[in-house]
Amino acid sequence: MKDTNYDLIVVGSSFASTFFLKKYLGKAPASARVLVLERGHLYPHPERVKEMRGEQTPYAALNPNYTDTFVNKSAGDKAWRFSIGFGGSSNCWVGCTPRFLPNDFRMKQRYGIAQDWPVGYDTLDPYYDEAETIMSISGPDDTPFPRKGAYPQPPHLFTSVDKLLHQKYGNLYINQPTARARTPVGSRNMCCVSSTCTLCPVNAKFTIENAGMGVYEDPRVELRYGAQVHHLTLAGNQARQVHFVQDGKEHQATADAFALGANAIFNAHILLNSGDANPHTGKGIGEQIGMQVSVYLDKLACVGGSTYVPANGYMLYDGDHRRDHAACLIESSNAPFVRMERGKWRDMAIFRMVFEELPHAHNYVAPSADRTKPEVHFQGPSAYVQKGIANMKQKLPGLFSCLPVEKIEFSDPLPTESHILGTTRMSSDPKAGVVDKHLIHHQYRNLFVLGSGSFTTYTPANPTLTLSALSLYAADQAF
Ligand SMILES: Cc1cc2nc3c(=O)[nH]c(=O)nc-3n(C[C@H](O)[C@H](O)[C@H](O)COP(=O)(O)OP(=O)(O)OC[C@H]3O[C@@H](n4cnc5c(N)ncnc54)[C@H](O)[C@@H]3O)c2cc1C
User: Which class does domain 5-148+201-284+418-478 fall in?
Assistant: First the structure.
């Protein structure tokens, strides 16, 4: 290491860290010195594609398998999914990027549920714009959330079934806003509609590796791979030092400010290992609950979409029902399928129903005997979600009455939506959460805790656009 004292030390190199750094570097002086500690390594996209094709690549062994990095004590088949390495889960995400609705930030005020976020939609609006520009998001002009101007890329094409639903529901059934490119941009090709987005074969979705954000090429930034942070020294109202293992050796570094961007499981774990005594730290881990719905159609082939998830439906999302049961976001799916009946091969539409969840303290992250491996405890979907599912099953036949429906089949809830939320929740009142509206720890005033761990409530919309906008906002306000 060149030196051990930095202006800023950042942990992790995925969305939360990179968007924070992007804004920070735009404001910091030429003399600023930043250290980024990344547990994994760069696994370049072409090498990942080789592995996908069954070819050998030495990169395949560089990063740990995520299932080996924590102890899952969750009930049933509940899974938590993410990726370790440079760019984190940007390498395996699917690129669905809807904004939240304004009411998602004020669930208490509107529906008497959980807590309001200390930051509202209007405050985040310009940072949403900036994040959408950086990711070159494709989307429609008319959306259920307020948005000025056009998306950077035109919308993806609907399927034949989406068209009918859009005709009926207007801006409550829209082309999905997405980071799967509609048109080529930078080093990204246009979406190939193969629905293998967790490793896009044509590099169409936004990733930190293909982002061209200039963050890790900046001469002020020193990026260290294979550096696993296990705790911070916390003293008084400050974080003083970061402790990490690299090449089997212990290292420390000091800085004026620190930013944790290791995701909601590991951010909480690092804080707990550091002796953070905030009673909310690690508590309330959750995510949305998803389930698949297969709609069998009479003489209507579901064809024509230009991407994996071509549309989002908001008909069961916002409204007074959220006082009683969970909002549901409808995602249409364009993954290849065949209906196993002669002459009806394509006469079926598949949807994913995604339900919001509430934070509960009985779902939590805790340290384990191994200081590098957190435990994750989760008891299962709440009654709020179960009621949301029951409501969806009751309402769906009516909502889809504009389609020639033969029958509808519902799957069980899926093991994961791959979104990790809560554990360091944002609050106005320091007694009610872990970080303030600028994602600064309520007690340690030079410590940012980034990412979707900061979410106060768990709307059904995908989290990554919002967590990226929050990182831009936090760095903009603080520096
Ligand atoms: C299969 C899949 C599909 C998804 N699809 C979508 C989608 O369509 N839309 C959406 O909004 N979201 C999606 N997500 C979720 C999305 O990927 C995450 O919300 C997002 O990646 C979180 O960003 P992050 O920077 O907070 O954390 P992560 O992406 O989890 O990155 C954390 C980083 O920290 C590093 N790290 C971890 N621990 C340490 C440590 N102790 N020391 C140093 N470094 C450490 C990791 O290596 C990694 O680089 C998906 C996720 C998965 C897994």
Answer: alpha beta
